[in-house]
Structures are given as structure tokens and as C-alpha cells.
């Protein structure tokens, strides 16, 4: 049997992916919604390889049925199955090319059955994660589909298990409840450490709190902390941009492997696939804890404790503003400047996901040349 074993025949390809395999060294064609790799068959084609190469990367339905071109026997159709490598996905553009950014945008709910039958992607009526893990799609087909937004009235399930499912959903108010107190504690600790560098977090983490351990506050400690806090706010804005662009949108640098596609879906793909899902708009606390750990360790490695804690307090406080702002950009009517940021962010989802990585500000998009034109009315 050919190298295209039965186990490989379930792959789902995008039309653009097939069209690129149009050379003698890699010859794909489509027929009746199926994808065939005829590279090895070229030397054996009875009519010569030129006829096949003329249709490389294209559909051969018409030519296969054209008796004036080349008569194909029933055996020829049966032989084709040896070279079948998968199916052609729907790949239809769900968001129209003339979509205009509008802060009053309200998408229609997706027809689940029609969407699944047409695109051979995720069945939104079933748990998502196991479908992504077992998916037959190529990486390119996954990326072409996950950036075409779908919409549900209720949050889709990630897991079938009622025990695991709650860990995948986060209400917006959980973020400030957890991270603002931590930012306030680190800010207080920073102020105290500017007056007493030997002070540690353990000195303040007593029960009941030992406020006498805090040295008296001075103008120097307050101004020093505030300067570090401001640096932390700036640091967060660049981290927001860098993480969004180079981690969450790693996209085309992903390995074409199921674990990589699944990780991409968990980190950010699900948000682009279901951008209006209210319970997946802010970062789960565990995910933010994992992401912030190397950066906070780096801050303590580079700076004295007082400066590091001051910078981290500013970054954490700004992170909360980022996540609350992100939720508002999707679901809240906003004043002028924020309404423009809402149009800008929605254009990232519905117009061009390869531009417009700033959420709280466009500043770094200006700096790094990734500005997105919103084409407002």
C-alpha cells in the first residue's frame, strides 16, 4: 500500500493549503470534496504527467468526467482511493470582507448544525477540548477556522466532566478580588522596604497583622514606590503587547502537532473562536499565576526588593485594569476613547487577527508597526 495509509485519510485540509501543492514534487488535487496526493502517481499516469500537473492544486471533477480529455475507467476511480489523504474543509469566510468596526456590534448566534456540517470543524453542542485533541485537521485548517468567530448564548463546555468544567470559566469580578489585594500588599511592602530594606513579606504576613512591624512612612518611601509603580504600569503595557503578539498569536510558528494545537486553543484560540463568551474573557487566576511567575522572579533578580515589589505592584494593578477593560471592550457601552478602543479590538477579532495587539492602548502597535485600520462608518 502507498505511504498514505488509512490512518492518514481523515485529515481535513483548507482549499488554500491544497492550492499550494501544485508542483511536480508535491501534487495535490481535489475530487468530490476529498483531497488526493498524486505525487507518486505522476510517472504512472497513462496520459502522461503533464495532464495531471495542469490541474495540480485544483479540483479535477470536470476533467475526470470529460471524455474528450481522457477516458477514465471504473478501476481508475477505485485506484484514486489509494492516494486519498483527507477531506476538503468548508473554509467559508464567516465574517464578511466588508465588515465595519462598530461599538454597537451584536453578532447573530451561530447555527450549530449548519456550521459543523459545512466546515467539519468543532461541534459546539459537545465538549470542545476532546474534539480539538482528537481532531483530524491540519494546523493550517485549524488556524483558518479558529479565527472565524462563532457565537453562542451560553458558554460552550470545554470538558464533559462537571467537576473540571468550573475551572475553565472565570467571572470578570474574580480578577480584581484576587489580584488587587495582592497588588496592594506588594505596594505596602515596597513602601516599607524603602524605609527598612531588611523587611520581608513574612514580617507582614502574620495573623493577626502586626502593624507595628511597619516602619513609619516617609515622603521618600512614598515617592520611590510611586515611581516604581508607574514603571510597573508601563512594563505591563509592553508585556500585554508581547504576550498577545508572540505567545497567544504564535499561530504559524506552532508545530503541526495535536498537543501544540490543543495548547494554542486553550491559551487563546478559544477566545478567538468564541470572542463574546462572557466566561472566557478574563484570564483564569491559575493561568495568570503561571504567566507572571518568570517575570516576577526576573524583577527580583534584577532589582532590590523594594524596587522589584513596587514595579510588580504596578504591573499587577494594571493587569487587573487590562482584564476588566478587555471584558468591557466586548460587552459594555463605553465613552468616546474607550469606544474607539472597542472598535479597534473588535477589528482585531473580526477583521485582521494579525494586527492590533494592543488592548488597553495602541501605543505599542504604533511603535512596532502593527496598527490596524478599523474602517469605521
Automatic annotation (TrEMBL):
The keyword Signal does not apply. Zn(2+) 1 binds at residues 244, 249, 268, 272, 348. It comes from the Eukaryota. Keywords: Endoplasmic reticulum, Fatty acid biosynthesis, Fatty acid metabolism, Heme, Iron, Lipid biosynthesis, Lipid metabolism, Membrane, Metal-binding, Oxidoreductase, Transmembrane, Transmembrane helix, Zinc. The chain crosses the membrane at residues 172-194, 214-239, 306-324. Zn(2+) 2 binds at residues 271, 326, 330, 345, 349. InterPro entries: Cyt_B5-like_heme/steroid-bd (IPR001199), Cyt_B5-like_heme/steroid_sf (IPR036400), Cyt_B5_heme-BS (IPR018506), Fatty_acid_hydroxylase (IPR006694), Scs7 (IPR014430). Ceramide hydroxylase involved in the hydroxylation of sphingolipid-associated very long chain fatty acids. This is Ceramide very long chain fatty acid hydroxylase. It comes from Kwoniella pini CBS 10737.
